[in-house]
Specification:
Chains A, B, C, D: Belongs to the NAGSA dehydrogenase family. Type 1 subfamily. Chains A, B, C, D: It catalyses: N-acetyl-L-glutamate 5-semialdehyde + phosphate + NADP(+) = N-acetyl-L-glutamyl 5-phosphate + NADPH + H(+). Chains A, B, C, D: This is N-acetyl-gamma-glutamyl-phosphate reductase. Chains A, B, C, D: Keywords: Amino-acid biosynthesis, Arginine biosynthesis, Cytoplasm, NADP, Oxidoreductase. Four copies of one chain form a homotetramer. Chain A has two domains: 4-129, NAD(P)-binding Rossmann-like Domain (Rossmann fold), CATH 3.40.50; 154-316, Dihydrodipicolinate Reductase, domain 2, CATH 3.30.360.10. Chain A has eleven helices and 14 strands. Chain A has helices at residues 14-23, 44-47, 82-92, 110-117, 124-127, 135-143, 153-167, 197-200, 214-226, 258-269, 318-332; strands at residues 4-9, 29-35, 59-60, 72-75, 97-100, 131-132, 147-149, 177-182, 205-206, 233-238, 245-252, 275-277, 295-301, 307-314. In chain A, α1 (14-23) packs across α11 and α6 (135-143) packs parallel to α11 (318-332). Chains in contact: A-B, A-C, A-D, B-C, B-D, C-D.
Amino acid sequence: MTKKKIGILGASGYTGSDAVRLLARHPNAEITALTANTHAGKTMSEVFPHFFMLDLPRLVEWEKVDWTRLDAVFCGLPHGTTQEIIAAVLKANPGIKILDMSADFRLRDEDSYAQWYGHEHRAFELQGEAVYGLTELYREKITAARLVACPGCYPTAVLLALVPLAKAKLIDVDDIIIDAKSGVTGAGRGLKQNTLFSEAGEGLSPYSIGSHRHSAEIEQEIGVAAGSAVTVNFTPHLIPMARGEFCTSYVKLNGATPDDLRAELEKAYANEPFAHVTKKGVLPQTQNVRGSNYVQIGVVADRIKNRAIVLSTLDNLVKGSAGQAIQNMNLMFGLPETTGLEQIALFP
Amino acid sequence: MTKKKIGILGASGYTGSDAVRLLARHPNAEITALTANTHAGKTMSEVFPHFFMLDLPRLVEWEKVDWTRLDAVFCGLPHGTTQEIIAAVLKANPGIKILDMSADFRLRDEDSYAQWYGHEHRAFELQGEAVYGLTELYREKITAARLVACPGCYPTAVLLALVPLAKAKLIDVDDIIIDAKSGVTGAGRGLKQNTLFSEAGEGLSPYSIGSHRHSAEIEQEIGVAAGSAVTVNFTPHLIPMARGEFCTSYVKLNGATPDDLRAELEKAYANEPFAHVTKKGVLPQTQNVRGSNYVQIGVVADRIKNRAIVLSTLDNLVKGSAGQAIQNMNLMFGLPETTGLEQIALFP
Amino acid sequence: MTKKKIGILGASGYTGSDAVRLLARHPNAEITALTANTHAGKTMSEVFPHFFMLDLPRLVEWEKVDWTRLDAVFCGLPHGTTQEIIAAVLKANPGIKILDMSADFRLRDEDSYAQWYGHEHRAFELQGEAVYGLTELYREKITAARLVACPGCYPTAVLLALVPLAKAKLIDVDDIIIDAKSGVTGAGRGLKQNTLFSEAGEGLSPYSIGSHRHSAEIEQEIGVAAGSAVTVNFTPHLIPMARGEFCTSYVKLNGATPDDLRAELEKAYANEPFAHVTKKGVLPQTQNVRGSNYVQIGVVADRIKNRAIVLSTLDNLVKGSAGQAIQNMNLMFGLPETTGLEQIALFP
Amino acid sequence: MTKKKIGILGASGYTGSDAVRLLARHPNAEITALTANTHAGKTMSEVFPHFFMLDLPRLVEWEKVDWTRLDAVFCGLPHGTTQEIIAAVLKANPGIKILDMSADFRLRDEDSYAQWYGHEHRAFELQGEAVYGLTELYREKITAARLVACPGCYPTAVLLALVPLAKAKLIDVDDIIIDAKSGVTGAGRGLKQNTLFSEAGEGLSPYSIGSHRHSAEIEQEIGVAAGSAVTVNFTPHLIPMARGEFCTSYVKLNGATPDDLRAELEKAYANEPFAHVTKKGVLPQTQNVRGSNYVQIGVVADRIKNRAIVLSTLDNLVKGSAGQAIQNMNLMFGLPETTGLEQIALFP
């Protein structure tokens, strides 16, 4: 098979670089364009020295790329900037596959987008064809899509844990509390005081309670599963680790037992290569998925009657971003879904 | 004022050593006995080299101490071993003040103790006089006590956040979910695989869900405040930091608003030197209390109607253990409550 | 004693904030002015939330301070900006005491300053009266000084280890190799990519080899001790910890033994409150001094004949900066040298 | 090609588990036996839960393995225990390939072994055929070998940096100072107080100065390169990171320049897949090799005349252990040397 020619928009950020890390060793991919407008002209290893052993194209401005020569594009740009660029890319090459790792095409509702992101959608004509790229839930649509809006890291962790339960009406979707914990890479490579080593290290701080934009995606998709509008509690905390995300979801049971929940999840993911349900008594932990595309989900009984706790964990840059994007790309190109993604967690 | 003569039982553990750290600079205390049966004969700086600048008594077996010459004893022994030793100490010197940092005298109910700790209480005759040492809640009784059972680190954080709310009937005590996060010192200095640097670092893992013994203390004291038996959800997670504890408590409101909760907490702690309620919009974080005896408590609105989130944080070895014990000792000796405890958090 | 009125220039940086942390609990100090030009108008706890319990003056621009009402000023400004400001402060109040924690008055030679710092000295008329503030070496001059140039963190660690040996001619000053390791706070609070948690965490990188400006101070002071110009190897590395500095100095012996070196250091620091020499066989470690004003120094034999290894460690923000400045202030005001500085290391 | 059947002795330690991590995804390997005598009977994912997605053989006692059915064995046992077991394995199956990751066959001299390891060699009859498994230096011999003694992590980093320079007589081998820094996995998975998170985190401590056993290997191999017995200074420090090793070697030049050193190294490694020499001005850092089999080496001028600094870094569990063992296995089976080893560093 000839290798697919891949471009990466926003290669100087962490999601872009993790796409490079994985695609550089993907047997069916060839990285042929890397963009980073503020670093244009530099080599990738000037920006990310751990790529010293790779022979990669130099970073260029996105306007300089000949999109007609590419088969697929990964987009790791900040939200808000992506919509117009993707519209331009698709105009230049309507047959190209787009793996958008930004938030720009995740919300189907135009008003909801405007409300959560603070500005009107800039390419809403494309939103209709965008498929929400949570592979396990939308595999068929992704396979046929041109534009895939890969979910946020938190939504991936939460939705894989809760959607099957909401669909099966095992839980009360009006009483979902999600206590979420993220490593610092979740905040990106931009320079912020609170992500300095000396500030984030050896400490824990909550942030964006009640206002984190990933709430919107979570509510959209649980709403789809439940067949009704949903409001969830989503409370994120910053944890002193680089990678990893852990969601502790507190749910009210509709007559079901914790074992019923586990059974439902096991059924849903029985044939999934990356979504794993732990055995009764085994607790997921971020260490088990660091650097990998795997998700671990567990169910624990609550001492409060008629309640359960659902635990889920993933690597925010892999299954939570670049890895899932590649998983989707594999589907879109008819490749085995696991190609290039079977790295085991780097532990310790 | 002559200095009070202080002994520390279990000086080779972390709560013992933090008591030494603080008492060595306390203007009214003189450390005159240190016990550690497995390290008897060693100097303290062999066991904790950061005490190299102090002139401390050598570690001895607890049986070798002449308790009649001491004014107070801090006990940092593991639970289960403490009851008989404290009984022996009090027999040798009935006038001595006991600051127990273990779990041995925290539960007032004999059956509850047996159920959570797996063995019968070995000095239940003393339980009746033991005062639960949460200073802000039991100040008067502590002042008059001989035996103070200092609370666990998690209970201190949770109870300071929730007891005033339960007392004022602002929250529904049958629907309390406590997502708790602790630094690794919470597990003590014993050798365990999961607290090795290479295992706990750069990762997050839940533990003891539904079975953590601190649940019992939390339920006992919220029960007292509410006037009825209570079962809470208490879900602890291990965080890659040495010190610090953060509790995110999800509560259902009895018609109150989040602002009402904050106002109630502000009223409760208006004159407290160590318990601080953050202003609306300011979130507590462990960095603000590391190494100090302060507690920070905050209230945030929930997007789910009729719910709120109460955040609380402290240093598990200080306000969560040795610091609160010293705060209690100050009361018991008629000293200003803040003596020796006003260190500001070590940040960064 | 009435409290001395203290101002802090550059209170929004880490050395400034550590000065606040310590001075706020200093029995003879009252913080009456805090400057931070880019944060003017804010409260200190907006900039450093761990000061929530303190009642501090609001941050102002340095030009707004009435210097005639202050007894002493600590300066935590970046190098290069300090000279003119200090000149202005001294003009406004010639009797004020200046504790400069920047690099602006450390080098006695005008050309050397220009060479290492890339611009001409802007207040060289003051350099003559500036005393190099390494307390243990210049105590008498500091006591009498108006302007004290507190040394850099690395020079403090290195010079306390090597100056007594150079003075006593026990080592060959032409063959000194200093492998230095620093925590990330050494790089300050400014936003830099390499000090982000995700970049500096879980990794080690050398930096500024052969070009670190602290080399100049080290060479100046070892030169004074040896009575001749000296060039040293100084190779710093960034370590994933917030505080702490460790210097491993490889020295050639002039006929002396490692035990002779230790004896010389013990003699030099026999009466020093903060400089401690470890016993034979005990190795210094940063954990022993974290958050404290203590320095630990050790000597180890080398397997290579006629060589030894001298180890030294301190907290870069305390004995390496704000703590030593306060130690000097105590001398300048005739206070006991240890006042407000006896905190023991925060371990763990 | 049929897959080679692989056994791993000591699969419950970190070098064993990293061998599993890599071999499980190696296209020509099949793990068919895992031993761990203290954990016999458990599944591998009970011991290392990050292997939850693999279908691995259950852990057994080494005595239970049928060695005749295996093609190769990796040995991750502690030193001292390995010699007799390997002798037994080879007796059972003389055609098997042994990749020993322990220290038991690294020293060619029987007396040197006894001196450094404190007991007599227990299978010295095999030492003669053991090849020192530093791939880049002994490739031909390894290809033909049956028993390969893979080097320690520190020796790999140091020898790749210095052997070409010693061979070319560019440096004075009597004046080599190696300041070495290691992550905590270097100490293994055994329970030790100094490798607890709360002890090793946020701190730096030197250890085993003058007595670290890796000195012996370093001296043996630099001696071979130089053609004379050599004594080096080797000073290790424990760094708060899980993986990664960094060696800063201070060398005296025999008339050469730092550029000559870099040129010699570039020549030596021009065709090497895993050993990379950085360009002038680029400094190696552990982040660039974390989780990978790559080594980065750099040369920097020293401000002291006639001296240079050679920097080298690798992942102690990969190129420093399991990765290099697999690299050797590839050679021994006639596979492309890089098979299964091209993972890029996990950064951030």
